[in-house]
Amino acid sequence: MVMDQEQFEAAKQEFDQIDTDHDGYITLEEAVEWGATQGPDVGRAISRHMNQDRSGDGQVSFEEFLRYKMRDYDW
Ligand SMILES: [Ca+2]
Questions:
Q1: Distance from the alpha carbon of residue 8 to the mean position of ligand 1, in angstroms
Q2: What's the predicted TM-score (pTM) here?
Q3: How far is the CA of 61 from the centre of ligand 1 (A)?
Q4: 64 alpha carbon to ligand 1 midpoint, in Å?
Q5: In degrees, to the nearest 5, what angle opens at C-alpha 46 toward C-alphas 66 and 3?
Q6: Cα 28 to averaged position of ligand 1 atoms, centre (Å)
Q7: Which terminus of the chain, N or C, has fewer Cβ atoms within 10 Å?
Q8: How far apart are alpha carbons 42 and 57 in whole angstroms?
Q9: Fold assignment, 5-70
Q10: Residue 72 CA, ligand 1 centroid: distance in Å
């Protein structure tokens, strides 16, 4: 699936907002913290995504985040 430049930039911006220490990975802590500002539904959605983390390292890389976005998951 192809993502256009605008969608990519939007996803990058969103990722940077969630990745508060900017190490390039979203941890569960960062996801929960971000979710807390977005409402309980978002927090639950993020927890679900963390459970589906493909690499199983408990963190979401930008690449994994993009995959979620491309599949149009409801964050
Ligand atoms: Ca981080």
A1: 19
A2: 0.73
A3: 9
A4: 13
A5: 15
A6: 9
A7: N
A8: 21
A9: Recoverin; domain 1 (1.10.238)
A10: 22
Return the pLDDT at 37. Answer: 86
User: If we measure between CA atoms, which residue out of 24, 2, 26 comes closest to residue 75?
Assistant: 26
Residue 56 pLDDT exceeds 80: no
pLDDT number for residue 9: 93
Residue 60 C-alpha to ligand 1 middle, in angstroms? 9
The rounded distance, in Å, linking the Cα atoms of 55 and 41 is: 24
Q: Convert the pLDDT of each residue in 5-43 to its tens digit.
A: 998 999 999 999 999 999 999 888 888 888 888 877 776
Pairing of the two strands 59-61 and 25-27: antiparallel
